[in-house]
Design brief:
The chain is an all-alpha fold. The longest helix has 16 residues. It has two domains: 45 residues; 34 residues, no CATH class.
């Protein structure tokens, strides 16, 4: 039996109905989760996860060279906290 990745609309529905997340937030989180319900739930519930996502997505525009990449990697690994179970 092949498994399919759930559609963003299905993920948003689960987040809104089962988890009580606002429909607009649920729809956004589902649309950026790559079909991963746990990732969508974390993004919808955790402001720090959303902020980290924005930081990481903005890195390519801020890196000027390999030194910047190493500096960010050192800072990121030193301040990283473990992810809670989804």
């Amino acid at each position: 039996m092949p498994l399919r990745t759930p559609a963003p609309a299905a993920i948003a529905d689960v987040l809104a109905r089962r988890d009580g997340i606002e429909p607009e937030t649920a729809a956004w989180a589902a649309s950026v989760s790559g079909g991963h319900v746990g990732r969508a739930r974390r993004l919808a519930r955790d402001p720090e996860a959303r902020a980290h996502r924005e930081l990481v997505l903005g890195l390519p525009m801020r890196l000027r060279g390999i030194g910047d990449a190493f500096a960010y990697a050192a800072t990121s690994s030193a301040t990283r906290r473990p992810r809670p179970p989804s």
